[in-house]
Amino acid sequence: MGSLSSAARGLQRLRLAALVGVAFLMAGCAHTGLQPRGFRPSRSTAEVLSRALEPRRVALVIGIDDYQNPVLPDLRYAGADARKIAELLLSPDGGRFDRVELLVSGDRVTRDSILRALRTIRGELLEEDTFVLYFSGHGTLAETEKGKGRLYLLPSDATPADLEESALDLEVIREYLGSLPAERKALIVDACFHGEGKSVVDPELAPGLVELLESTPQTQVRGLSSGEAHMFASTLGRPAFEDPDLGHGVYTHYLIQAMTWRRTEADLNDDGLLTAWEAHDFARGRTQQHTDGRQVAEASFRLVGENDLLLAGDPNAASDSEHALLYNYEDKSGLFAASTLLVDGTAKGIFPGTFTVPGGRHHLEVRGPDGGLKVDGYIDLKAGQAVSAKDLGVLVREDRALQAIRVGFGGGPSQWGPLWGDGFVAIEGWAALRVPRGPAKGLFVGGTFGGGVSPTRRDLERLTEKGRGVFWFAGEGGWGTDVQRLRLRAAWQVRLNLLPLAVLPGPAHPLLPEETGWLFGSTGPVLHVGLILDRRMSLVAAGTVHLTYLDPSRLGAPKAQAFGQVTMGLELGF
């Protein structure tokens, strides 16, 4: 029996070895030609989510040549505009966009189709994404109520008699763009709205067209979010043209040039990237020149130089810019409209626009159309810094004389009851001379004269309480600097404090500490912190802690005492 058992176990081992061999053979066959079903190597959930959440660049590009309504004349090159822009946005040498939806013909350019595409894109975009909405076609102006105009972009099935239901309200489109979660977004419109060029307007509006246009703002900085750009082929009231020699709308033609063979010329700060503002500035100047000044492009940008939207170039291969940027895109009613920027005596150009200036210290002037100075001063610019012209008046401040009126309060320790009790209210005037430039820039010397009142006059029985005058004169010296609109100064102050003799009426008695005149010196640091409001005015707070040596109660030996004061007011610079 034992020998049979041993034989059986040997047979089982032989069968097991054979099964293992067959398994290895089948595995080899699987690698040579058979494909497994149902089980495949998979990326981790984290990898899949990371890929899905990567920043994406998306565009919706619309070009409309053919209009169904006979009142609306067909265009010749709007479709070509859209096709070329879409091609360049997708190109590895251009915008490197991940997805571009192109709407150029048939049912794809009706109002419903365009709105459907916009709704779809809203659901796709995430916070880190980039989105561009480009439109080339007709625009129009309608009077929605007496004296108030409304701008519309016209899809292929637009009906002039019912624009509200058949056209695309430009203001609604702008609000839609602003509501998108994308970090960077741009609206580019190659159309116009006053009846000439790429526009059709009801002839009945012709007599009052100019007044209606003036009440219809086209572009507004107000409401734009960070990284948002609105670019228009023409200023409201001017035409946007197509040109058969170019085969495109004029503005779009020069945008295309900026994104292709003239990119180096359009890249103002030489960082290897073409931003929306660079493309617009390039196209604006060439468009105006090409049309002999009849077509003047317009744009609004929330930021320039920070969080910019790229139309062409690889951000991973960007080079560091050695230039700072000075920009302004206000409309014609803005403070710097049609003003000339001069850097170190040389004219750089006329606002609106963006101008590059090498990093370093420069003398800047902004002169209005009449030659009057709006800004004049020196500024230290850092490479890559972007500065709005609206801030230049603040940043070039080099005041030599400063004056301020401040109000506040002060007080000392509890044992100072005879002097000013729980404290005093104060008003003071301050003036200083400052070194405006050179190695000692920021050093200043100043003086303060102030007065206040403290409720510390009490009679012998402590029943009668009246106010008591407090006066001081101080001199100080220190150093300060301005960081954007923040003003910081630190100084050391020496002060003479006076509480005049203040006898209460009533029975004669030896003078109480509360009635005795006091004259004592003190010294300590003072800190000024301010907000620069405009070219001349700042809101400044000053705080100080002073040390003195006296015995306010006259009951013991004098010793070191501390008191403090805080004031706030308006400061003027000259």
SSE arrangement:
Elements: H1 2-32, H2 45-52, E1 57-63, H3 78-90, E2 99-103, H4 111-124, E3 130-136, E4 139-145, E5 148-153, H5 163-166, E6 168-169, H6 170-179, E7 184-190, H7 209-214, E8 228-232, E9 242-243, E10 248-249, H8 250-259, H9 263-266, E11 274-275, H10 276-290, E12 298-301, E13 310-312, E14 323-328, E15 340-343, E16 346-350, E17 353-358, E18 360-367, E19 373-381, E20 386-388, H11 389-395, E21 401-411, H12 417-420, E22 424-434, E23 443-458, E24 465-483, E25 486-499, E26 518-532, E27 537-550, E28 559-573
Parallel strand pairs: 1-2, 1-3, 3-7, 7-8, 14-20
Antiparallel strand pairs: 4-5, 5-6, 8-12, 9-10, 11-13, 14-17, 15-16, 15-18, 18-19, 21-22, 21-28, 22-23, 23-24, 24-25, 25-26, 26-27, 27-28
Low-confidence stretches: 1-14, 16-40
Total beta strands:
28
Number of helices: 12
The whole-number mean of residue pLDDT values reads 84
Major sheet: order of its strands?
Answer: 21-22-23-24-25-26-27-28
User: What fraction, in percent, of the residue positions are helical?
Assistant: 10-25%
Number of domains: 3
**CATH architecture annotation name of the largest domain:** 3-Layer(aba) Sandwich
CATH topology of the largest domain: Rossmann fold
Distance N to C terminus: 121 Å
CATH class of the largest domain: Alpha Beta
Question: What is the CA-atom radius of gyration, in angstroms?
Answer: 37 Å
Could you say which structural class the secondary elements and strand pairing correspond to? alpha+beta
User: Mind describing the biggest β-sheet?
Assistant: 8 strands, antiparallel, barrel
